[in-house]
Amino acid sequence: MAKARVAVLIxxxxxxxxxxxxxxxxxxxxxxxxxxxxNNPEAEGLKLAHGEGIATFARAHKGVDRDAFDAIMLxxxxxxxxxxVALAGYMRILSDAFVEQWEGRMLNIHPxxxxxxxxxxxxxxxxxxxxxxxxxSVHLVTPELDAGPVLGQTEVTIRPDDTADTLAERVKMAxxxxxxxxxxxxxxxxxxxxxxxAQVRERAMAQPEADEVSSHGMPCFGIIGGKKFAxxxxxxxxxxxxALLVKISGAEEQAMLIDSDEDRxxxxxxxxxxWIGIRLDLGDTDWDHIADWLAKSWRAVAPKKLTKLxxxxxxx
Length: 316
Ligand code: GRF
Hints:
Layout: E1 4-10, H1 15-24, E2 31-38, H2 44-51, E3 56-58, H3 66-79, E4 84-87, H4 96-102, E5 106-110, H5 122-128, E6 133-140, E7 150-157, H6 164-187, H7 193-204, E8 210-215, E9 218-223, E10 228-234, E11 242-247, H8 251-260, E12 265-266, E13 275-279, H9 287-301, H10 304-315
Parallel strand pairs: 1-2, 1-4, 2-3, 4-5
Antiparallel strand pairs: 5-6, 6-7, 8-9, 9-10, 10-11, 11-13, 12-13
Helix pairs in contact: 1-6, 7-9
C-alpha cells in the first residue's frame, strides 16, 4: 500500500517533527516524511531532518507578504509530491488560500485541550485558571485559528508545584506520542473498514425509511420491513476487500461497469447479476458518487408508495 507523503512545517526546535520522523522509520508506518520546511532558516529541526536524509527547505518570511510567502511554501510542498501537511510548531498564520488548498489534508498539534486555550501561552493560562488537567490536541486545520475538528487529545495532569515550563515539558512528551499516532490513523482512515462502514452508514441511513441489519454476517441496509438495498462486504470469504454491494439493472450493466474499471467494480460472489461490488478501500473513493449509488439502489427496491412520495417531493 502506498504511503501518505507528508510535508512538515516547523519554525523552532522541531521536536514534534522529530517524533513524526522517527515514527515514520518503522516499516509499518502508513506515512513517510518527504519534506521539512521552515520560515526560519535557523530552526534547529532543519539540521535534524537534514541529518536524517530528509529534504529540507527554509526561507525567512521577513519582507515577503503572506500570500507570496505561502505561494513559495506551497510550491516546495507540491514539488516534494506531498499528499498531506503536518504543522509542528509553525509560528506563522497561513493565508486562507493555502488552508483551502490543503483542507482535510493538513493537521496541527496544539498544546492545550482544545477548544480551551487557542493561541499562545496555553500552559500559563491553564495554571492561572486553576485547571487540574492540561494536555494537547491534534486537529485539522481550517481558516479559523486552532478551531478545526479535533482528531485526538491526551490529558496531562497538572501538579500543584507546576510552572508553565514544567508543565510544557510533560505536555511535550504527550505531544510526541500523540502526533504520530493520530497522523497515522488519519492518513490510513480511508482503508479502515470501520471508517468506511461509517461513511456508507451515514449515506445509506439518509434514504427514506432506511434500516440497518446484519445479513450473512455483513452489515446491510434495507427499507424497514422491506427489501435490502446495500451490503458492506468486509474481507468476505477472506477476499481482503472492503466494498459496497448495490443493486443494478442486470448482467449487461454489471459487465459494462467491470469493463470500465476492473480494479473498482466486481461481480459479488453468490449475489448474481443484479448486484455490483464497488471497492471502497482504494484510497480515492468519491463519496458523493457512493451516495448516488445508494439512492439509485434504494429506488430499485423501494415500494411504489415511497418512490411516488419522493417524486412528488422532488418536484418542489
Ligand atoms: C508544540 O508545543 C506544539 O504543540 C506547538 O508548538 C510547539 C512546537 O514545539 N504548536 P516543537 O518545535 O515541536 O518542539
